[in-house]
Amino acid sequence: MQNIFTLRDNRTTVVRLLAIVLLTSGVASAHRDDYINETFVYRTVGRHTAEVEYWLDRIDNLQELDDGIAIPRHRDFLRHSFALEYGITDHFMIDGLAATDNQMGSYGFGRLRLESRYRFGEERTHGISPAVSLEYEDDRRENRRTLTPRLVLNRDFKEFNTTLNVLREIELQGPQGNGWGYTAGVRYGEEKHRLRFGAEVQHTFKRHVEGAVIPQMWIKLTDKATVKVGYGQRITYAGQSFFRAVLEWEFGGKE
Fold it and tell me: Long-range CB contacts (< 8 A, 24+ apart) of 157-160?
């Protein structure tokens, strides 16, 4: 069975998204936080600033691939994740996340992620603001360990943020193999607003193509606390659909 989006169409989408980000002009504004499904933005956490996060996921595995055939299997589960981001300098940050899964009343270790990010210079009023990231992930449920370098391209407008990540997923252990991918995010609303809205589109081209669309919103509770809520709809046979709520709390800062 063919995916909803063919590989050729997906590559065309990547090119078009990159062209939009690179060629459109606008006025810069601040967008510090990442998108809800890890489309990384250009900005990093400030020097000596920490950000604590709690994630709650309901993950829906209605279909899994078995030798390329979609077989319905009900394996829904909850995932609780705790993350900490810390700014080493104004341009370099580190990030760690650990998750536990709850299925049928029992808990087990689900996922470990370690990431570092470096941004080049200051955000540009006109043009692209680039950053690079290196991520290590150990997913026990999928029995996979991966190393993922990525290029982050950011363009801010008066009311919009546009971000494109181009990545290479290098499999250290697991059945999926290596693959190229992209994530693209668009967000409406400046950081000072109480409510902001956005969406992500993601594809990874490995043994089984995985793609998702994730509409989402940001709710600003205080200057230091934000709630993000989103729903990820799988648009390929591989991958997962999920609902996610994230609470972020920032503290500290450079002296």
Answer: 157/24, 157/26, 157/27, 157/28, 157/29, 158/26, 158/27, 158/29, 158/190, 159/29, 159/188, 159/189, 159/190, 160/26, 160/186, 160/187, 160/188
Outline where DSSP puts E strands in the chain.
Answer: 49-60, 63-66, 69-72, 77-87, 92-103, 106-119, 129-139, 144-156, 160-173, 179-188, 195-205, 210-220, 225-234, 241-252
Asked whether 184 and 15 are in contact (CB, 8 A), the reply is no
Locate 125 and state its tokens: 């009023």
**232 with 241: CB under 8 angstroms?**
yes
Residue 46 has pLDDT above 60, yes or no: yes
- Displacement of CA 105 from its chain's centroid (Å): 28
The sign one gets for the Cα dihedral 180, 131, 153, 201 is positive
Percentage of the residues of the chain whose pLDDT score is greater than 90: 57
| Least-confidence region, from 1-5, 48-52, 59-63, 175-179 | 1-5
Q: How far apart are CA 115 and CA 137, in angstroms?
A: 9
Q: Helices (DSSP H) in the chain: which residue ranges? A: 7-23
**In degrees rounded to 5, what are phi and psi of residue 122?**
-105, 160
Q: Which domains does the chain have, with CATH numbers?
A: 7-252 (2.40.160.40)
pLDDT tens per residue, range 203-219: 999 988 999 999 999 99
Amino acid letter, residue 219: I
